[in-house]
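@channel sequence for tomorrow's demo:
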Amino acid sequence: MKTKGCGVAASVDVRTLEAMAVAGMTPAEIARYYNITRQGMVKVIENNPELKDAFYRGKDHVTVKAINGLVKKIDDGDMFAIVYYLNNRCGWKEAKYEKEKPDVDAHRVTIYLPENNRDKPDNE
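structure tokens (generated this afternoon):
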């Protein structure tokens, strides 16, 4: 009896895999298509340079499309897109969502503990 997923790398077509990635399919969705686990699909992709290149080419294609769409919305003045970009790419946060910052101008406080004879020499 063969192990589940055995020989899958040989049955995965480079063009099909790239098309699936361009369509936005995740490794888990592609794995279901080939009837293997997500981890198995990740191993197949990572262990085969040709499949790995095809998957990441497809994934990069979608990423570029998404970024171009976001930039177009920014150019059109879409405030949601602008705020999204600033939050995710520039680390910007609206003041109302920032956690409370420590007060830089706060006075430093020194606390003196009561004497407990720890600093006195042994012979006294």
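heads up for whoever presents: Helices lie at 8-11, 14-22, 27-34, 38-47, 49-75, 79-89.
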